[in-house]
């Protein structure tokens, strides 16, 4: 069902154009994998091609874990379109959430929750963009579904699902995945200690051996991947990139690195004016509280479908009175959020690992609400129906908003059109991008394919007449174009009737 919905949305509204830095980095990873490589050789003129969230030196590769790039590559392989990988990711996440719900709830409530999850605005969005989230939610759902089944009696299959979930989390959102994995493993450890007298060794073996084997294979592959991209078995590409470019810490209490050097003003402003500013805001107690409340508000807004699902939490006091493992989803969700809110930035995809447990809590709440009566009337059931109608309304509003965004023809759409027109024109092209001082740091034209030298269209940053001459000599024989851009921030552009139009101009070579 989810696959049909997301494919239908793309066909009805139009295919998404990559817009934010993260999307381009994930598409680079996919293109790299499709070339049969984990990373690309450093380009001789790499400073011209530096991107946010992409390592340009000593290797040319996305900084992000590989799960999103692998799914995008799979979509391209199967259908010729990268976006199909997102349809598949979201469909798998929705199926896993339904399976997880079935481990904690009666079948009819699990079915209802699973069906409605396919229409959640966050999951609809993830099926139309390239920045990820669904893979981490899939991994978290496998953990959430395996836990109650293992507690009913360890089986090899459930142990494998548990380990597979942890691997997917490690390959998509390692830090948040580690937090959730520790919570689930901690719960299993407590359960094992309480049941040690009743459990036979074969049952313990069915739990530990399959999971241990799968995790051993994963750790070996991750060490190999790290060594190929960073030269260090224990160092992720993400860590290398952050040390080189990002002055802010990952967590609010970490030390910053304010003395980093940059080759380009846009990249410098992105990190020093945006990242460093947000990091410094949270260094004081008051600033930390203010920014944390903003993060919570954003997450509540996104995951409750603009508050439509919040009535489920009216039953939270009754859920918390319950004893035993049915209490775990609510407690684990709370502890998980308390930890990850220490991150400097917070978006819906960052908490994707705990998404399935969140939905378990929501549908546990609605199930309890459905029993409420007032004056002999089924007041609670009516409240559940109203909440679901509100939820469906928010899903419809998201689709409407998506239509408006696609019709705007912003710079990302213009960029795709430029590439398409130049490819139809034939030959090879080099686009030199020159930014004005007020260019939005979140909107960057310079992104390239995995094989830069053989791409039909190459994007490069203007580095001044002298350095540019080296670029022109290297790409001799290409038609050279100039693109000048000084776009305001997206919020300001949204107030305009039409976004700024950009045109390529032939570059006057010396």
Layout of helices and strands, plus pairs?
Layout (H helix, E strand, L loop, with lengths): L1 H12 L7 H14 L5 E2 L12 E2 L3 E4 L4 H13 L3 H22 L2 H11 L3 H6 L7 H19 L3 H15 L3 H22 L5 H30 L6 H9 L19 H17 L3 H19 L12 H6 L6 H13 L14 H15 L9 H29 L3 H15 L3 E7 L21 E5 L3 H10 L4 E7 L4 H5 L10 E2 L4
Parallel strand pairs: 4-5, 4-6
Antiparallel strand pairs: 1-3, 2-3, 6-7
Helix pairs in contact: 1-4, 2-3, 3-4, 4-5, 4-7, 4-16, 5-16, 7-8, 7-9, 8-9, 8-10, 9-15, 15-16
Explained architecture:
The protein is mainly α. It has 2 domains: 2-245 and 282-402, no CATH class; 411-506, no CATH class. It contains 20 helices and 7 strands. The strands form 2 sheets. The chain has a 4-stranded mixed β-sheet with strand order 5-4-6-7. Strands 1-3-2 form a 3-stranded antiparallel β-sheet. The mean pLDDT is 94.
List key phrases describing it.
globular; 20 helices; 3-stranded antiparallel β-sheet; 2 domains; mainly alpha; 7 strands; 4-stranded mixed β-sheet; single chain; 510 residues
């Amino acid at each position: 069902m989810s696959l049909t919905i997301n494919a239908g949305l793309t066909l009805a509204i139009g295919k998404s154009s990559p817009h934010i830095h993260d999307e381009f980095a994930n598409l680079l990873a996919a293109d790299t994998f499709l070339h049969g490589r984990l990373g690309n050789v450093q380009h001789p003129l790499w400073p011209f091609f530096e991107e946010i969230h992409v390592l340009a030196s000593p290797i040319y590769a996305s900084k992000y874990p590989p799960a999103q790039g692998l799914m995008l590559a799979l979509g391209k392989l199967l259908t010729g379109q990268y976006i199909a990988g997102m349809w598949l990711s979201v469909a798998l996440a929705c199926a896993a959430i339904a399976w997880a719900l079935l481990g904690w709830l009666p079948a009819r409530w699990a079915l209802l929750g699973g069906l409605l999850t396919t229409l959640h605005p966050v999951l609809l969005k993830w099926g139309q963009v390239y920045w990820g989230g669904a893979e981490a939610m899939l991994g978290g759902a496998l953990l959430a579904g395996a836990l109650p089944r293992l507690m009913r009696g360890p089986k090899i299959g459930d142990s494998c699902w548990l380990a597979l979930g942890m691997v997917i989390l490690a390959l998509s959102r390692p830090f948040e995945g580690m937090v959730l994995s520790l919570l689930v493993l901690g719960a299993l450890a407590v359960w094992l200690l309480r049941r040690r007298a009743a459990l036979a060794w074969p049952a313990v073996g069915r739990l530990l051996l399959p999971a241990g084997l799968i995790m051993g294979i994963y750790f070996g592959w991750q060490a190999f991947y790290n060594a190929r991209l960073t030269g260090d078995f224990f160092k992720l590409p993400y860590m290398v990139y952050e040390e080189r470019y990002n002055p802010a810490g990952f967590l609010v209490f970490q030390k910053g690195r304010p003395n980093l050097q940059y080759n380009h003003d846009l990249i410098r402003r992105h990190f020093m004016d945006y990242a460093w500013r947000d990091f410094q805001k949270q260094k004081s107690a008051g600033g930390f509280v203010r920014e944390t409340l903003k993060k919570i508000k954003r997450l509540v807004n996104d995951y409750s479908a603009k508050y439509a699902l919040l009535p489920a939490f009216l039953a939270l006091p009754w859920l918390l009175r319950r004893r035993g493992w049915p209490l775990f989803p609510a407690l684990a969700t709370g502890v998980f959020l308390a930890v990850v809110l220490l991150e400097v930035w917070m978006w819906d995809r960052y908490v994707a690992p705990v998404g399935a447990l969140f939905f378990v809590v929501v549908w546990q709440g609605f199930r309890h609400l459905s029993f409420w009566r007032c004056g002999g009337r089924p007041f609670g059931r009516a409240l559940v129906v109203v909440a679901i109608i509100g939820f469906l309304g928010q899903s419809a509003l998201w689709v409407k908003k998506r239509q408006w965004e696609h019709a705007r023809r912003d710079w990302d759409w213009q960029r795709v059109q430029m590439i398409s027109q130049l490819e139809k024109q034939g030959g090879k092209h080099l686009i030199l991008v020159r930014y004005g001082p007020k260019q939005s740091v979140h909107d960057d034209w310079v992104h390239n394919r995995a094989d830069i030298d053989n791409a039909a269209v190459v994007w490069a940053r203007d580095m001044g007449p002298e350095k540019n001459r080296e670029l022109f000599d290297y790409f001799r024989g290409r038609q050279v174009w100039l693109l000048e851009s000084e776009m305001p921030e997206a919020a300001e552009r949204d107030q305009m009737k039409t976004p700024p139009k950009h045109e390529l101009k032939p570059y006057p070579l010396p």
